[in-house]
Design brief:
The structure is a single chain. By secondary structure, this protein is mainly alpha-helical. Helix content is 58%, strand content 0%. One of its GO terms (cellular component) is photoreceptor connecting cilium.
């Protein structure tokens, strides 16, 4: 099934939806603060960014190893 769109299909107006007031737990608040910090990459030095990247990369590799070990245990 193919859909043919005219040139004005991308000009659909989008309205902002107000955010509801929700009680956030302290963990949720810190998560949102971390998200804000992630957006300020230009304010962090290159060395710090490289350190963070390498730390995350190492954590990812460790998690992959752990999941492979768990998959092997499940298969046995």
């Amino acid at each position: 099934m193919s859909t043919v769109l005219d040139d004005s299909a991308w000009d659909v107006p989008v309205r902002d939806v107000p955010v509801r007031d929700v009680q956030l737990s302290p963990a949720d608040v810190s998560l949102h603060q971390n998200a804000r910090e992630r957006q300020d990459v230009s304010k962090v030095s290159r060395e710090e960014l490289e350190d963070r990247f390498l730390r995350l990369h190492e954590d990812t590799l460790l998690l992959k190893q752990k999941t492979h070990k768990q998959d092997d245990k499940i298969r046995k």
